[in-house]
Amino acid sequence: MSEPVGVLKAPAVDRLVLVGVGLIGGSLARALRASGWAGSIEGAVRTHAELDEALALGVLDAGSTDPESVCPGADMVVLATDLAAMPELLPRIGACLAPHAVLTDVGSVKSAVVGMARASLGEQLPRFVPGHPIAGTERSGVAASFESLFFERRCVLTPLEETAPEAIERVTDMWQAAGATIHQMTPAAHDETFALTSHLPHLIAYSMVAQLADADAEVRAGSAETEGAVPGPLDFAAGGFADITRIAQSRADLWVDILDRNRDAVLTHGRRFTHDLSRLLDALERGDLSLLEAEFARAVDTRRTLERARPDSAA
């Protein structure tokens, strides 16, 4: 079970601004408030309803629907929006950052974010530290946020050659205060890794659920022509199917955008996946059960290793 983040003796920054206060931004705000890392936590959100909710939940001390009204004078700005919003927001934020301010983000395709930052930030680029916390749920919105989301989770930073060392240190300190463990990669290495471990799995999960929906619709269409309804495959999709497709509850528009922005890496790993799946289907067709058992045994060992490495494996 997750433990609370330790409380600091004094705030590391006076003003933290979150641009986007959903699951990730809201959870970061909660964790940093609990640790005392920031003196004041403010936010910029899309709508007044979102702002009212974040204030009512105690996630923010203050906020606005206008980033330019809250970012000036901030010590740290975290861009916690969808990737699709970043091209429009980055130049606006960069234009009003204080000279000492550090800017970071939480986007899951780092090469795309770095390209946007290079096109938008100009002289502020050395103050930008691209980041990606490896945590989340299938839920979204500030009401879904919680303090321990990042506890004992990994956070990847992909600093550029131009990135100021003190900016990296500040962002590292922030995520550690939220309970995360820091790793550094190049943007390209990050995108290759998460194409395989996150982006492709989402594509597969959505595809599996779509296939089930089609099969269920066929059964129900056939049963409509007979007397009495016949249960379809959807009625029996529990247990393993529900586990493997849980992430298909995530926002469709968000994941279409992520897959598009990491297209090359996802296609590379996706083509390999379909090749390997075809190899197993061919083995099953010809009755080569020893190949199937060897592949399954190797997968079982790898999955058990993964389970032991999970921070909540003992819970």
In brief, what are we looking at here?
The protein has helices spanning 23-35, 48-56, 67-70, 86-96, 110-120, 165-177, 187-223, 240-244, 252-261, 263-286, 289-309, and strands at 13-19, 38-44, 62-64, 76-79, 102-105, 128-129, 131-133, 154-157, 181-184. It has 315 residues and is α/β, with parallel strands linked by helices.
What portion of residues is helical? 40-55%
The Cα radius of gyration reads 22 Å
Strand order of the largest sheet: 3-2-1-4-5-6
Tell me the structural class. alpha/beta
Descriptive labels:
315 residues; alpha/beta; six-stranded parallel β-sheet; three-stranded mixed β-sheet; 9 strands; 12% strand
Structural notes for this entry:
This protein is of the alpha/beta class. It is 50% helix and 12% strand. It contains eleven helices and nine strands. The strands form two sheets. A six-stranded parallel sheet has the order 3-2-1-4-5-6, with helices on both faces. Strands 7-8-9 form a three-stranded mixed sheet, covered by helices on one side. Helix 4 links the parallel strand 4 and strand 5.
Write the layout of secondary structure elements.
Blueprint: E1 13-19, H1 23-35, E2 38-44, H2 48-56, E3 62-64, H3 67-70, E4 76-79, H4 86-96, E5 102-105, H5 110-120, E6 128-129, E7 131-133, E8 154-157, H6 165-177, E9 181-184, H7 187-223, H8 240-244, H9 252-261, H10 263-286, H11 289-309
Parallel strand pairs: 1-2, 1-4, 2-3, 4-5, 5-6, 8-9
Antiparallel strand pairs: 7-8
Helix pairs in contact: 4-5, 7-10
